[in-house]
From TrEMBL:
InterPro entries: CarboxyPept-like_regulatory, CARDB, Ig-like_fold. This is CARDB domain-containing protein. Keywords: Membrane, Transmembrane, Transmembrane helix. Pfam families: CARDB. The chain crosses the membrane at residues 816-834, 877-898. Residues 517-614 form the CARDB domain. Gene3D superfamilies: Carboxypeptidase-like, regulatory domain, Immunoglobulins. Coiled coil: none annotated.
Amino acid sequence: MDRESIKHALIAVLLALVLPSAAHAQEFSQIQIEVQGPELVATNVFDDDGSIGLVDIFIASSGSVNRYQFSGVEEGTVFDVAFSSDSSIYYNFMDNDGAIVNLQYFIFVLNPQPPEEPTPVQPKPKVFLGKTITPRLAEGNRSFYLDVSADINSAFSAERAVFFYSFTKSGTRTSVPMIKNGDTFTATAGPFTGKIYPYSGITVYNSSGKKVTSGFGSTVYHLIASDVAACALIGVPASAAPSTVTETPTIQFEAASFDSAIINEEISETINLANEGNAPVILLQGSSQFSWIKIVNQSGQLVATSVYDNDDSIGFVDVFVVRGSSSQQFSFTNVKQGQTLNASFSDADTVYYNFMDIDGSIVNLQFFLPVDEDEAFRPPLPSQKVKLIESVEFEARPNDNYSAFFIDVELTPVEGATVETAKVFYRFGRTSKDETVFLSKSGEKFTGTIGPVSGEVFFYSNTYAYDGLGNSSRVYTDAWYAVIPPHRIKCVEICGNFKDDDNDDLIDEDCVLLSELIFTQKNIPSFSVVGKPLNVSATVKNAGVSNAASFDVVLLLNNQLVDSVTIAGLETDGSAEIYFSVEDTNDFFGVNELKLVIDPSNSVPELNELNNEALQSLVIGFNQFNVIFNYNDADFLGDTRHLRVFDRLGKPVANANVSLTFPSGTVREFDTNAGGFIIFDLIEPGAYLVDVSKEEFDPFQGAFSVARIVLPDFKEIIAVGETLPIIVQTEDGQIPSDIIVEVELPNGERQRIELSDLGRGEFRALVAGSHKLIVTRKGFTVFEASFLATGFFESVFVGAGAGTELLFGSIIRQPVLFLILVVISLLAAAFAHTKSILLFPRRPKSSREKQIEDATRIGIAILLFILPFQVDRFFGFNAALAFVVLEIASILISDYFYKQSRRRKAIRVR
């Protein structure tokens, strides 16, 4: 396989890993995020399932960066993030859960300035597990309702929800309270007639008052009903209905994308696979220029060329050497023009590199760039996406007898754009097969017709325009259509719409017009401090079709009346805000059931008398602390730690007393600031004890630890000329940054040791004498130890590698224990030498036999002297001491039995 083939294979592997469906995807997922007033909203979502799998949002304000993570993001989602007009906002997204996929980084929303490294991710749980809008024909088939449903994550503890809609982006919103059934909320909006194009969404509120909003995709709803004069056809038998008409009254539909009326532009595809096998180019929106680096192989060395950036260096470069089925990675930072990159490779290896630079106004991010022996080349400029479509309009048109309808399509090109061809891919229902209609040029526009279509259908489409130069634009549109022929129109009065629906010159005749009193807003705390006033507020609305007379709203605690408010009547669609206050809560210490009740005396007749209560659990007691020990992820000695104190509701606690006990026993007192912070330096390793207290709070006690910084390969004694390896890490193996290592030489001078990114360095001792190794971090000494550089003779007897330590073990470094073990080992050796004579027979021996006997006895004595030190090496001093005692006892016992066996008893003679 040649190098070019390997390069293509590597690109395919990347796409297969990151975007598993990319090999088959002809389209890319997309999401656009916009600032709309005080909110950050997901717009223009395009994907086969209507949602983007993972979205990371970065918000930089006042020198800090917060990262928020969302999953399953649909069009219209309002992100729960905090920002201001001065914030710098950008986002990443990834979607790989279907046939349409994408992966993009650093897309700027506001104030495009590449920010600093973000603080740790703040994952946001998915609140909306699912939501649907279902069109439903109303009685009479001349209008329709929108039935709305939302399934909410139980972890959010949703108390209420509101469905809202308007017919323009900035128009007045209509709010419809939703009915709660477990974790599912439902509502019905309408009736509507004709064609509507709602901007809609759902807002849910939990018990603490937090709200989350999720919008629906922009969808056209068009009811094509026969004129009301067809009421004269009442009584036409069902057999007269055209056989082509089909009814699908309650098809569920979750809008997943956007309509041309609000987007009016194509989706930008910012992952481009260049021709001739070039690697994927990921563009950074919001930057007019792009950093660049070309790495070439010059005579077996990798050299950085064509470096282009505002600070003349590329922030991060990773070089990968692929050898067979294995690969090796080499990482470099702040790479400059002409720099040689120390990465080992051979001619048979495949070498490629990634780079990223985001530290200035010129930025870039590139993957899988090949390294070859070509001359440095000029970086390709990113091509700008050409916009061809100004708008696409779809208009439903019934036939003469309303048995079917046609969809007329009109595409308007961008002024000055040259569109040669245009076509629409469409389907009726998400699972049906795509069909195609080509649009014909009509003056400056392109038109076409889809149909005939009968009954009630959901319509999904992609409209494409092409200029013949390889450029294309796309607009995605979806809609609901229903055609109602005359025989299906019923002349019945629809109550509450204040219209003459049955053409009898009477409005809402025979209708019972009632009020409908509901809560639309509730501000009920889930916790209140005992002895403090309890404040509750709510908004009551008359959602009925008749004005309401005077009525009461009461507040109950454990079914005990504690406050009451009288509302002097409400007109239709009118609202009133009410406020309750309980001054003394001492009698309600503990868990309570709080209930708000509208019209408890039932003095106002209503359409629904079962939705007049709001029930919630309320805890009255002392507040509790929630302490985050390491809010800024400061983990190492020398770091400045931010400890933050919240209350049980997640609000920062100011002026709380924090008593911090350091590992040495030193105690420091702090008071939290307005943000609930205390700030201190980690100057000691070990366990820190934290005590937090404040009036009206339960006291808090906790602890955290800071790992000691160690040098695992440090030696106390080395030979002159020997290299001392220096590895700086924590006890748990982490590599701290900002480490300074210095060696103080015997003459008092200091020599600084340079460390790699992995915290590794080395020092070579050139002179004999005592040295001191000093490790500092951010101005604090985190490690200090002395070591001795010796000559050859001393190193034989002194030091970790000396002969004495090889013989006796590390106990030689503990003089007292070593001396004790030497004494008792000598005693055991002396016993062994004296008593080992028992092993040899008592008889006359030659001088040669005596020499062998003496040598054996000396060997036994030496063995029993050395063995305790080896036991200490493996099992410790106590085991060695026990072993010596066992040696002596064994010798004494052996001597006793030997002497007993040598005794002779006298023979008695009678």
